[in-house]
Amino acid sequence: MPELPEVETCRRALDRWTRGRRVDRVEFLDGRSVRDRREDRPSTGSEAAARRVRELVTRQSPVATQRHGKRLLWTWPGGCLLLHLGMTGKWTRLPSPFEKLRLHLDDGSIVRFADPRLLGGVVPCSHAEGPRWLSEGLGPDAWTEPLPRLSGSRPIKVALMDQARVAGLGNLHAAEALWRAGIDPRCPSNEVSSRHDALAEGVREQLRLALDELGSNDEITYVEEAGAANPFPVYQRAGEPCGRCGTRIARMMQAGRSTYWCPGCQR
Ligand SMILES: [Zn+2]
């Protein structure tokens, strides 16, 4: 599932694949992925939005990509595309049975948006709307901005996943960051404030390692995909010994999601 490192890796790949290239044509295979507004739900496809995307990219070269949390903004000479990966979306150069749209580039290559569950999408917008929509409703970016102090009595893992407080962490990287920081995921947020530096360092280290790991490949692979490697110390490792203290990794439910953690060294 895409979180900040996967989205940032996707941004870098889009840049690498398309910089200096021109789009000859765009092909829509499933119009439901192209929507009018950021809040539109899957299957709210819009023909008007598809026409706008076609106008924006055909015979044009992209100008820049930006990321905030898990959102991407792709700027073109006539406007922007806000990109969401949702739960399963990815931009790829590999053919996929789940392709929703294809950009045919002037060097003969094809960049594809594939999305099995249709929760991701593309939203055309103006140069004025784009940067606003990119960060609207989101807290500071977890990679490029300092981690804010999280107040309140919610468990720290749940608070870290609240995009309005800090943007970019999801279930996997929040749990891994807490393992790195040695903090119990159930700890109330306000009680972690005395260990804020350790938490910020855990988040930073987790995102840095994930970006390095993902960046060694041309394409993103999600750990949930069949056959994908799991490079993470606690994620989906219930029952295995902790790499730091040897205690068995545990699993519990928090806010409807599985949290993996080490009862031995996370206090
Ligand atoms: Zn441990």
Q: What is the number of helices? A: 6
Total number of distinct structural domains: 2
Return the string of H and E elements: HEHEEEEEEEHHHHEE
CATH architecture of the largest domain: Alpha-Beta Barrel
Structural class: alpha+beta
Largest sheet: 4 strands, antiparallel
Strand content: 15-25%
Cα separation of the termini: 27 Å
Which stretches are low in confidence, meaning pLDDT under 50 for 5 or more residues running? none
> Would you tell me which CATH topology of the largest domain applies?
N-terminal domain of MutM-like DNA repair proteins
What small molecules does the structure contain?
A: zinc ion
Shape: elongated
**Quaternary structure state of the chains depicted:** single chain
Q: State Rg.
A: 19 Å
| Strand neighbour order, sheet with most strands | 1-6-7-5
Mean pLDDT equals 96
Helix content: 25-40%
User: What is the number of E strands?
Assistant: 10
Q: CATH H level of the largest domain: which superfamily?
A: MutM-like, N-terminal
